[in-house]
Amino acid sequence: MKRSIRLRGLNGPFKGQSWESTECVRVGRLGPLEVVLDDASVSRNHAEIRYTERGWRLRDLGSTNGTRLNGVPLSAGQWPLRVRDLLQFGEIALIVEALSESEPDSNGSGNEEMRVEATAKSSWDEALEGLAFDSQRCPRAGEQLLALLRAGHHLVHIEKEEDLLHSILNDAVAVLDAQRGAIVLAEGVESKLKLRALVTGRGQPRALAAGREGVGGRFQFSQSLAQRCVSRGESILCHKVDDDPELAMAKSIAEGSMASVLCVLLRTPRKRLGVLHLDRGPWQKPFSMDDLHLADALAANVSAGIECAQLVKKQRDLFLDTITILAQAVEMRDEYTGGHTLRVSTYSILLAQELNMSPQDIELIRIGTPLHDIGKIGIDDAILRKPDRLTPEEFEIMKSHTVKGADIVSTVPDLKPIIPIVRSHHERWDGKGYPDGLGGEVISPLARVVALADAFDAMTSDRPYRKGMAPAVAFTEIEKQVGKQFDPAFAVAFLGMQQTILGEMNVQATVLTPSKRIRVLSRDG
Description:
- By secondary structure, the chain is of the alpha+beta class.
- Helix content is 38%, strand content 18%.
- It contains 17 helices and 19 strands.
- The longest helix is centred in the middle third of the chain and has 45 residues, at 289-333.
């Protein structure tokens, strides 16, 4: 069975329209994209959906109006998709109608025989000897040695994989006087080569067209050389491509104006990661054996850092997947608060941005808010799902969800920074809240943000024993509680966002309410 994904439009002029792909779906206003949404709320390159070794993943591409998955604004990274997930690009909503996955292809990579001037099949340890000496065992020139030392510095001081790859390329292109450099990594169960970073001779990274070899008709690396480099485990020097008719006629070589190419293996003692691809144009001096030796040493020096960055990214993706699953587990237990977590998350992030909180705090709110009611897992169904008002005794038990939630979160080291959100989102500015009776600025700012969003959604949501307030009434109630229940500055900021909050409520009502016959099921749906 071939892997594929099928999307269907839910609103606007795209309602009922379908799109299907087997590899990558790019979404935006640009004509060449797989899903073209010609709407002012959608960015030119808005988001992409890509098949990975862990299934289909959604990623926002820095869009102006953001991408939402089941109502939750996406942060950086790739987010897992399931059938019936709701995707929102600006104001346009699509639903994942079908997903299927396939086994890795059994066809060979088809390594063509081509004439190359030299190859280097040194081990990782042997390549590292090239850090200090060139191919003639002479000490390296100062500029070359400095570039290699700088590469080691990047590995220690740069956390984001994208920044690390571009820093490596900037140094490689500069010291080897290349017109362009690319890092291509083997990804997924099929170890398919994917372009991950591109830098020109002036050190400026180019925007990548996901899933394509070229941008604007110009190719960025030689697929055949890269595939040979990885499959054979050897670094390659093509001194003059015009001397080899097969290479000279290759589309990537011709359209990329590549006259001389270095394709060196990125590897650690554990695995082959991909290639560092460098090329020079017809107006430049061809690469030499010394250039091959230097590039191979550089590749060996930086490969451990690239592998480490990949492992960190994989761990973070798994961490975010776990949070998503935990948040959904809470929603499924309490049938009377459906959509509450999504709405509180949205309002909290909007308020944090309005308050100009740091990116680190906004990220903690993005991670922690979906779990603010995780302790309800430990509340008996007879109380949690009771269709009537709780008795004072039952309410005391319900209040324990804050402490239970904090205890659950504290068992996961990476989640400890969000404990204040889970434990303290029912504390009050005047000290009359629970569970600890904290007051004023003693309460974590993260918890004060979520407390406002949580209270507003509770007031405007229907319950079996009462109908939700109109938003205007809820805003009035918040105004009455300024300096009492809520942080005065935070409450004033929230009240100043009324139109933004109402807009979010309308968007969610449009795409999530039964009256529109759009039903977003759980991931296990």
